[in-house]
C-alpha cells in the first residue's frame, strides 16, 4: 500500500473515531477530536508500522472505550505482531481480542496512606477487584494461615464452634488451605495467636521456604484489573529484614528475581513516599487509638520490632528504634524502585498526591 493510501485510510479511521466520541460523549467535532488526539490510540494509529489503520472501525472504537474507561495505556510490539500494553492491550495477530487490565500494587510505609489510596483508586476503577490486607489474595498471604490439609483438619477439630466460619474464610490451593483468620471475630482465647504461627511471615518459614512460597504464588498469578494493598513490599521486606536477617543486597537480589518473574505482566506500583517519618508516626498513633485515647497500634508495632531477631540484635527499642528501622526500610524500598522497578513505579508524595487521569492511564 502506498504512503498516500495509508494516509487516506488512517484519516478515515480518525474520522470514524471522532464521530464515535461525538455520539458517545455528546461533544462537538473539535472537542471530540481533541480528546482523541490526547490518547495513546491516536499516537499508535499515526504510526504506520502498527498497521492499526487496517483494523475495523468497530475494533478501534472498542479500543478507545477501553483506554478511556478502564485506565489502559497502549503500545505496540511490532516484532511479534501483537498489540499489547504495558498495562496491557489488545489483539492477537490473526484475530481474537486479548484484553488485559492493569494491576496496581499500593506500597509505602505504615501511615503513608495506602488504605486511603486503595479506596480512592477503587472508586475511580469500580470494575477492579480489591485485595486488602487480611483478604485472600492470589499473591499475598499476610494475616492468613498457610496450612497443610492435615493442619487444617486439626484446626477444625480444635475449634468446633468456629468450624462453619473457618470453612467460609478458607480457600483451597492444591494441597494447601489458606485461612483468612483475622476476618474471624471470636473471644476464644489464643485463636488468633495460634493461627498467626501458621503464617509464612514472622520467621515461621526459613528463608529458602519463604522465597519458594512467595515466588511460586507470583509466578502462578496472571490476574488483571486488580488492586493490591502492600502485597509487593511491606510484608515481604519486613520479614526479610526483621526475621530472616537478610542484607540489603540480598533483598535487592530477591526483587530482581521477582521482577524477571513478572516480566510481561500488566502491573504498576504506586509508591507513597514518606519524607517525615516521625511526623507520620505521630499522626497514626493518634488515629489508631480508641475513644479513650489508648493507643492500639503503636504498642503492637513496638513489640513486633523489639521481639524480632533483628530488633534484638540491633538494640531497636521504643520510638527511636522504630524510626531507625522505618528509615532503613524506606531507603531500601527507594533503592528497589530505582534499581529494579523504575519503569513500573509511580512515586507519589504521601498525603499530598491527587489521583489524576494521568496516574491511572499513563504511568510509564
Describe this protein with a few key phrases.
364 residues, alpha/beta, five-stranded parallel β-sheet, three-stranded antiparallel β-sheet, 16 helices, 10 strands, elongated
Provide a descriptive summary of the structure in words:
There is one protein chain. The protein is 48% helix and 12% strand. The protein is α/β, with parallel strands linked by helices and 364 residues long. The protein has a five-stranded parallel beta sheet with strand order 4-8-3-9-10, sandwiched between helices. Strands 5-7-6 form a three-stranded antiparallel beta sheet. Helix 13 crosses helix 15. The longest helix has 23 residues, at 3-25. The chain is elongated and about 75 Å long. The two termini are 33 Å apart.
Helices, strands, pairings?
Elements: H1 3-25, H2 29-37, H3 40-46, H4 57-70, E1 75-77, E2 82-84, E3 103-108, H5 114-124, E4 129-131, E5 145-148, H6 149-158, H7 163-168, E6 170-173, E7 176-179, H8 191-196, H9 207-220, E8 226-229, H10 234-242, H11 248-261, E9 267-273, H12 277-287, H13 297-306, H14 309-313, H15 318-339, E10 345-349, H16 357-361
Parallel strand pairs: 3-8, 3-9, 4-8, 9-10
Antiparallel strand pairs: 1-2, 5-7, 6-7
What Rg is obtained from the alpha carbons, in whole angstroms? Answer: 24 Å
Euclidean distance between termini CA atoms:
33 Å
In percent, how helical is the residue content?
A: 40-55%
Order of helices and strands: HHHHEEEHEEHHEEHHEHHEHHHHEH
Average pLDDT level? 88
Give me the number of helical elements. Answer: 16
Got a strand count?
A: 10
Tell me the β content.
5-15%
Low-confidence stretches: 76-99
Biggest sheet descriptor: 5 strands, parallel
Form type: elongated
Classification by helices and strands: alpha/beta
Strand order of the largest sheet: 4-8-3-9-10
Amino acid at each position: 500500500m502506498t504512503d498516500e493510501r495509508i494516509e487516506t485510510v488512517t484519516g478515515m479511521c480518525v474520522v470514524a473515531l471522532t464521530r464515535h466520541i461525538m455520539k458517545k460523549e455528546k461533544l462537538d467535532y473539535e472537542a471530540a477530536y481533541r480528546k482523541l488526539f490526547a490518547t495513546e490510540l491516536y499516537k499508535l494509529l499515526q504510526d504506520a508500522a502498527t498497521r492499526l489503520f487496517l483494523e475495523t472501525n468497530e475494533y478501534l472504537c472498542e479500543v478507545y472505550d477501553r483506554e478511556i474507561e478502564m485506565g489502559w495505556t497502549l503500545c505496540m510490539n511490532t516484532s511479534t505482531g501483537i498489540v499489547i500494553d504495558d498495562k496491557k492491550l489488545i489483539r492477537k495477530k490473526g484475530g481474537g481480542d486479548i484484553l488485559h487490565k492493569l494491576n496496581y500494587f499500593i506500597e509505602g510505609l505504615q501511615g503513608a496512606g495506602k488504605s486511603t489510596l486503595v479506596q480512592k483508586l477503587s472508586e475511580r476503577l469500580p470494575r477492579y477487584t480489591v485485595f486488602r490486607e487480611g483478604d485472600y489474595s492470589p499473591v499475598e498471604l499476610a494475616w492468613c494461615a498457610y496450612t497443610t490439609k492435615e493442619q487444617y483438619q486439626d484446626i477444625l477439630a480444635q475449634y468446633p464452634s468456629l468450624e462453619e466460619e473457618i470453612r467460609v474464610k478458607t480457600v483451597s490451593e492444591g494441597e494447601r488451605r489458606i485461612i483468612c483468620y483475622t476476618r474471624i471475630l471470636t473471644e476464644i482465647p489464643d485463636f488468633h495467636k495460634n493461627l498467626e504461627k501458621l503464617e509464612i511471615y514472622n520467621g515461621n518459614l526459613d528463608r529458602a521456604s519463604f522465597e519458594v512460597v512467595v515466588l511460586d504464588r507470583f509466578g502462578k498469578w496472571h490476574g488483571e484489573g486488580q488492586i493490591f494493598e502492600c502485597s509487593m513490599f511491606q510484608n515481604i521486606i519486613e520479614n526479610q529484614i526483621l526475621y530472616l536477617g537478610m542484607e540489603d543486597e540480598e533483598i535487592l537480589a530477591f526483587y530482581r528475581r521477582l521482577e524477571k518473574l513478572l516480566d510481561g505482566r500488566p502491573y504498576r506500583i504506586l509508591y507513597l513516599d514518606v519524607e517525615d517519618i516521625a511526623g507520620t508516626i505521630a499522626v497514626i498513633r493518634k488515629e489508631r487509638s480508641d475513644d479513650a485515647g489508648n493507643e492500639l497500634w503503636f504498642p503492637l508495632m513496638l513489640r513486633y520490632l523489639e521481639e524480632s531477631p533483628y530488633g534484638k540484635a540491633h538494640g531497636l527499642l521504643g520510638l527511636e528504634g522504630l524510626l531507625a528501622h522505618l528509615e532503613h526500610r524506606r531507603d531500601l524500598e527507594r533503592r528497589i524502585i530505582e534499581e529494579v522497578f523504575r519503569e513500573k513505579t509511580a512515586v507519589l508524595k504521601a498525603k499530598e498526591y491527587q489521583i489524576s487521569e494521568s496516574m491511572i492511564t499513563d504511568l510509564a
